[in-house]
Hints:
Blueprint: H1 8-17, H2 41-53
Amino acid sequence: MADQATRFSGSQLFYDNAWSTDKTIKLYEGHFHDLVNDIDKELVIADILSWIDARLPATQSAAQA
């Protein structure tokens, strides 16, 4: 990993020890510490939104209400 601020092994350790059963780890090869302001930030943001959307109940849009 290109991140010089932290090691990905720390993220892996945090993930492994988190008690939640609803968790995901995604390591972005070649990226740096601030993923939402880094190269391919659109991909990272899309991954975050996809993770959130998969866990939120579907809602009607204002146009359908």
